[in-house]
Amino acid sequence: MKNQDKSQIPFFSPSEEKRFLVILGGGESGVGTAILGKQKGYDVFLSDRGSIKEKYKKVLLQNEIEFEENQHTEAKIFAADVVMKSPGIPDKVKLIQDLISKGISVVSEIEFASEFTEATIVGITGSNGKTTTTLLMHHILKAGGLNVGVAGNIGDSFAAQVAVEDFDEYVLELSSFQLDGIKNFSPHIAIITNITPDHLDRYDYSFDKYIASKFRITKNQTPNDFLIYDADDEAICNWLSQNKTKAKLVPFSITKELSYGAFLRNKEIITNINSDEFKMSIAKLTLQGKHNTKNAMASTLAAQLLKVRKQTIAESLEDFEGAEHRLEKVQKVNGVAFINDSKATNVNATFYALECMDNPTVWIVGGVDKGNDYSDLMPLVREKVKGIVCLGLENKKIIESFGNVVDVIVETAGAEEAVKVANKIAERGDVVLLSPACASFDLFESYEDRGRKFKQAVRNL
């Protein structure tokens, strides 16, 4: 990584002996790290407590990488010089705690891979909007002629791309789980889209700990780096008022005018950085809604810092198609519009979705509740929602929250049933919105699986 002091990286110091890399988790990030580790001369062993998907097993076998599944052989794992753990494994797991107590470095894929690239990195985190901002940022930079890869929580793993292709720039979508495993990783440009309560079960139900995790994105930045952030976000502004970052602060806002950064005036985005002003009407953005205006601001600021032409930025904002499962228009059936927002796995993401609805809405909601407080949604539900279809095994909190507000609430146990019930409630001109505000693991493999099954059910109507 550029401008990195390698002396601070004990597990990458040169050695005549082969280093032993153990990888915990045989998913996208684990297998990518295994490929990169082997390429860089490590002895590699991958261990997964569950079963490994066939497509990943094939890659491991092709690359002659030793692995095990459905178990962890601790004697072998504790012989590691460095351990890369999947972001899905919490730090509090006994195996991880034992590794740390033995002084063995436990890092994330992002940390490991970043040591083997000189690329300029744009790192994007936040409770919501990070996928859209990552894809939009990649779209702009690609249109600007940059040799850019996109990775992190999205697409092929960062480690695999560094091993196979190694781009000049990367746009990385970074979850708090990935940031928890960094030691020296430092993006040239960091973006924090927003911070609202999410994944609190992973952070001892402490919002402060979750906020601190997000701000790890800037902990190694230098005065030559940039932190782009939402100046309307209370949690972000509170942290910045009490903590220091070396990076240059670049704010954006839709509520106030700023002398530096990006703001809104007369329904026009205006950015002012490096004495270089950019203007664009929000009516021209393909993605509508206040949150997407903010995503556009953050992406524009980062693109300008990377010297992309203003005309290219404007054209890219006009023709960007958006992320699958994020306010994705599926199709109209008998005058009823069906929208897939399966990626809305928390209340704040669903708030954005409901805010964008201009027509009477049948709202499909529910799944694995992560400690949700639905009270913030109440004004929008009163104003816009005509019926609720519950899609989850445990719907008590949803029913208690909205039973006195919405006349029709129906419980369902699958995407097909939910779509059929919603279609019966809806009338011509209405919208059926899947925006669950919950995780998907009670009925589905993932939010992608939930979104795909919803779309198939709509097509089957």
Task: Give a structural overview.
The protein has 461 residues and is an alpha/beta fold. The chain has 3 domains: 19-107, Rossmann fold, CATH 3.40.50; 113-319, Mur-like, catalytic domain (UDP-N-acetylmuramoyl-L-alanine:D-glutamate ligase); 328-459, Mur ligase, C-terminal domain (Protein-Tyrosine Phosphatase, Chain A), CATH 3.90.190. It has helices at 28-39, 54-62, 74-77, 94-101, 109-114, 130-143, 158-164, 176-180, 207-214, 234-242, 290-305, 310-319, 347-356, 378-384, 396-402, 415-425, 447-459, and strands at residues 20-24, 43-48, 66-69, 82-85, 105-107, 120-125, 148-152, 169-173, 189-192, 226-230, 248-252, 261-265, 268-273, 276-281, 328-333, 336-340, 361-365, 385-391, 408-412, 431-434. The protein has a 6-stranded parallel sheet with strand order 7-8-6-9-10-11, with helices on one face. β10, α10 (234-242) and β11 (248-252) form a beta-alpha-beta unit. α16 crosses α17. Its EC number is 6.3.2.9. ATP binds at residues 126-132. InterPro entries: Mur-like_cat_sf, Mur_ligase_C, Mur_ligase_C_dom_sf, Mur_ligase_cen, MurD. GO terms for molecular function: ATP binding; UDP-N-acetylmuramoylalanine-D-glutamate ligase activity. It holds the Pfam family Mur_ligase_C.
